[in-house]
Amino acid sequence: MEKKFVFPNAGIHIVSWKIGEADYFLEELKNTHAHDDKFNYIFSAYVSSLRSITFTLQYVMTKYPNFDDWYKIRQERLRSSKLAKAFVEFRNHAQKTGIIPIAPENSIYEGIFYDSTQFFVPTNSQIKEVPNGSVVELSEKCLVEVLNVVAECYKDFDIYIDPRVLFTERGIDSLNWTVEDVEEYVGIPRGYTNADFNDATLSNRQIRLNLLRNHGGDETLQQFLDKYLAQ
């Protein structure tokens, strides 16, 4: 007999928190003038939180079946992205040297005049190339690349991490759970919802799952996927 799935002690809400953190700093970046010192402070916090998204995704998901093999493909995709690689370098450079390689609009850095807020290549640094374009626009574009991986994970592993799927027949069948297992999962005594509802449309099992859905965890990740990917 197939064993019932036991959830590891880490949930997708941790990833959602980190995405929320990156979203917060990106919004602050959009609303701060590049000549304000806070702009660099915010960018430093942003690239750190952006990098943490994939770290937390691995931490949360690594104990789920087949995730490690799944992630290797996505990890290679991010590594091959010049933009994602550049933002990793920005994070590392900021942490190791304290230098944020951003030239505000109408400024001169390394002998070059910048009429818009862009990245520049610091002298004698490991950074040899920077992406062209607005700092804010590139920052959001990089977040989108990371969120595309998260969205794929949310879809491919939905029975484990999407609370909207757990409380369905497909969800519990995939986990080899019973409705009683779901009751116990949400803190309700086993068998509490067991009754004959005598419904002509839905089975007792479906009705019980619908009742239990109200006691499950809130879905917090979709709002960010909708904000950045639903375009």
From TrEMBL:
Protein name according to UniProt: Uncharacterized protein
Lineage: Bacteria, Pseudomonadati, Bacteroidota, Flavobacteriia, Flavobacteriales
